[in-house]
Amino acid sequence: MLTVSTVNVNGIRAAAAKGFTEWLAATPADVVCLQEVRAEPEQFPGHLRAPDGWHTLIAPASTKGRAGVAVFSRIAPTATRIGFDAPEFAASGRYAEIDLPNVTIASLYLPAGEAGTDRQSEKERFMTAFHAHLQRLHARAATTGREVLICGDWNIAHREADIKNWKANQKNSGFLPEERQWLSTLLDDTGYVDVVRTLHPNIEGPYSWWSFRGKAFDNDSGWRIDYHMATPDLAARATSAVTERAATYAERWSDHAPVTCVFDWDIAAVPAPRGPIVDVSTGVAAN
């Protein structure tokens, strides 16, 4: 079995002091994807920079105190990468991926945006570039047998069932019609599967983010914006998907909750190529 968790920690140092350390010690996950760590590697609490039993990949943002993603893996990666083929976002601290023997797992922190501002324009440029990257990853998976799992804070609630107050948020970033359409088109074009929604097709939520303001958490007035997006063969092996919502407001260590999926997947099995291995940037078969 392969167990993967994703969570926006809303600052690794603050989360560590509030309960993330204890959560990490107790989680059965093989891989944990973190977003919004907001720290350079040397600023991580010492026990989280290289925790016992974990291999860590940390991708901070060039803007200090902003963004930042990380991947913790109990399994030694065979390769690691920070960023993707988009120079504007190379040092933005928004994407990191690791290769395990037969699956690539990535941590994504898609920009939040703000309708009608430069922040929204930046989000849209990221979305365009990231769509192309996901197509390349999917093409590689189709030719090599390697599966792909993109975990993280996508900052888009896809469907009405993914946000409690959807009527009031139709003009707000995160639920704009064009953002939702982008996500629909991306899934249709690339073939990725929303694992949580596939396992929980007919429910509201399960929400993974609640504002710290007011009674949003107590009233379960949340958004589902933290996704596991998998290539079809891996998605078909998903056996469970759980949002680890804190029991009480006081027990929260982030405004997000971890989302954990379990796959009936043998991580040690090395896939056999399904055909010629193609360099997706050139379309030329490798020797």
State the gist of this model.
Helices cover 24% and strands 24% of the residues. The chain has helices at 12-26, 46-49, 118-144, 177-190, 195-199, 232-235, and strands at 2-8, 31-35, 55-59, 69-73, 79-82, 95-100, 103-109, 147-153, 193-194, 226-230, 238-243, 259-263, 278-279, 284-285.
Structure write-up:
It is a single chain. This protein is of the alpha+beta class and about 290 residues long. The chain has one domain: Deoxyribonuclease I, Chain A (4-Layer Sandwich). It is about 25% helix and about 25% strand. It has 6 helices and 14 strands. It has helices at about 10-25, 45-50, 120-145, 175-190, 195-200, 230-235, and strands at about 1-10, 30-35, 55-60, 70-75, 80, 95-100, 105-110, 145-155, 195, 225-230, 240-245, 260-265, 280, 285. The strands form 3 sheets. A 6-stranded mixed sheet has the order 3-4-2-1-12-11. A 6-stranded mixed sheet has the order 5-6-7-8-10-9. Helix 1 (about 10-25) links the parallel strand 1 and strand 2 (about 30-35). Helix 3 runs parallel beside helix 4 (about 175-190). The longest helix is centred in the middle third of the chain and has 27 residues, at about 120-145. About 40% of the residues are buried. The model is unreliable at about 270-285 (pLDDT under 50).
